[in-house]
Amino acid sequence: MRFFLSLSLLFLSALAIAQAPSVFALEARAGESLNYEMDLNAGAPITDLSWAWNSSNACFVEPRKQYFTGNHVLFKTEIPTYSTMVIRLVPTDPSQNMSIYAYSGGGGALPPALASCVSCEADFYQDRPSRTRPNPDHTRSVELRAVTRPYPVTIGVVGADGLAEGTFTLEITVTKNR
């Protein structure tokens, strides 16, 4: 019985490690736009997405989970005080459907272990025009703000509908508000 329990725990640990996406450190500087090129194959799927529609995060709603089922590539950076950070995702191949989310705060936690964050924004495919995006295309964009103190920022680039590979450019622009 003990051997079976140990083997089961070893298997579950290996499964958790196999599904942990890589995290890449980025430097975002106020007053600059920086571009980073990457491939979704550097990430891994996150099968438990319930953290995103938890009311303490409110990143995206459960009916939109199909847009976040592929590989997740995670990036860490920081937003300085009195700043706005605009993060733009541009897939190299416009036919590849990718999504993006970014959250500030979170105490260093990564999905799916993110219990709460200061703010979280997500952008994914929209087949109809909206007030904020009159002409939907293959690019995605989110925006975060910091006021009186800096916050750690985690950015997730994700393949929609199980997409596991595809190159993209991540553009980060930080502007000071004061």
Q: Work out the helix count.
A: 2
Poorly predicted residue ranges: 1-18
User: N-to-C SSE series?
Assistant: HEEEHEEEEEEE
Largest sheet: 6 strands, mixed
Distance between the termini: 64 Å
Explained architecture:
Residues 1-25 form the signal peptide. Keywords: Signal. The protein has 178 residues and is mostly beta strands. It has a single domain (22-176), classed as Sandwich (Jelly Rolls). The chain is 12% helix and 38% strand. It has 2 helices and 10 strands; from the N terminus they run H-E-E-E-H-E-E-E-E-E-E-E. The strands form 2 sheets. Strands 1, 3, 4, 6, 7 and 9 form a 6-stranded mixed sheet that branches. A 4-stranded antiparallel sheet has the order 2-10-5-8, with no helix packed on it.
Kindly list the characteristics that best describe this protein.
single chain, mainly beta, Jelly Rolls, four-stranded antiparallel β-sheet, 12% helix, signal
SSE map:
Elements: H1 2-18, E1 23-25, E2 33-39, E3 44-45, H2 50-53, E4 71-79, E5 83-91, E6 98-104, E7 119-123, E8 140-146, E9 151-159, E10 167-176
